[in-house]
Write a structure and sequence with these properties.
The complex is a heterodimer of chains A (115) and B (108). With 115 residues, chain A is mainly beta. Chain A is 0% helix and 48% strand. In chain B, the strands form 2 sheets. In chain B, strands 2, 4, 5, 9, 10 and 11 form a 6-stranded mixed sheet that branches. A 5-stranded antiparallel sheet of chain B has the order 1-3-8-7-6, with no helix packed on it. The radius of gyration of chain B is 13 Å and the shape is globular. Classes of the chains: A mainly beta (115), B mainly beta (108). At the A-B interface, β4, β5 and β10 of A face β4, β5, β9 and β10 of B.
Chain lengths: 115, 108
């Protein structure tokens, strides 16, 4: 079966532009997570959805970051007015049950570079 | 503050030379301890979940163990294809809090 799919794999944007990153989770997975991974670091939690409900967005670094999952499947992470410090790999993960206790399966990420 | 620390940062082994990676954690309300493997340019790949002190899990050349303060990933007779970054993560609430990883290189 297909794993978690993220697009685009690479994104280059100029400072101040808006970007949108897409995540297709494993079919039927109720939980979806976004993480940010800086070079040489472990992933850092951004936000968590259970179906279409965003239950935890405490990791979003500023109000420029916005995530949605309107139909409980595909999710989009949007970053407005991008800054150089937003450059990182953005990882999406999904799991089959609620609450994260089941293993989270990760996509290969979107590498975002802000010039 | 919840904290997960991995050591060493980097480890070089000869093929067949067994060793252990350490993950120490200071968290409140640990729901599980996860180990992942990450290859360059890829997302983390799930290896193990441990839920309670004393639990052990094995897969091929890897064995993960858990105490009340730390977890170990034991690698027995590693092969070059085991080279990767190994990440541990504590499940707190619904979020994973990751360590910074141990970059393992196994030379033939």
């Amino acid at each position: 079966g297909a794993g978690v799919s993220q697009s685009p794999r690479y994104k280059v944007a100029k400072r101040g532009q808006d970007v949108a990153l897409r995540c297709d989770p494993i079919s039927g997975h109720v939980s979806l997570f976004w993480y940010q991974q800086a070079l040489g670091q472990g992933p850092e939690f951004l936000t968590y959805f259970q179906n279409e409900a965003q239950l935890d967005k405490s990791g979003l670094p500023s109000d420029r970051f916005f995530a949605e999952r309107p139909e409980g499947s595909v999710s989009t992470l949007k970053i407005q007015r991008t800054q150089q410090e937003d450059s990182a790999v953005y990882l999406c993960a999904s799991s089959g049950g609620p609450g994260g206790a089941q293993p989270q399966h990760f996509g290969d990420g979107t590498r975002l570079s802000i010039l | 503050e919840d904290q997960v620390t991995q050591s060493p940062e980097a480890l070089r082994l000869q093929e067949g030379e067994s060793s252990s990676l350490n993950c120490s954690y200071t968290v409140s309300g640990l729901r599980g301890l996860f180990w992942y493997r990450q290859d360059p340019g890829k997302g983390p790949e799930f290896l193990f979940t441990l839920y309670s002190a004393g639990e052990e899990k094995e897969k091929e050349r890897l064995k993960a163990t858990l105490t009340k303060k730390e977890s170990f990933l034991h690698i027995t007779a590693p092969k070059p294809e085991d080279s990767a970054t190994y990440l541990c993560a504590a499940l707190i609430g619904s979020r994973l809090t990751f360590g910074e990883g141990t970059q393992l290189t196994v030379n033939p």
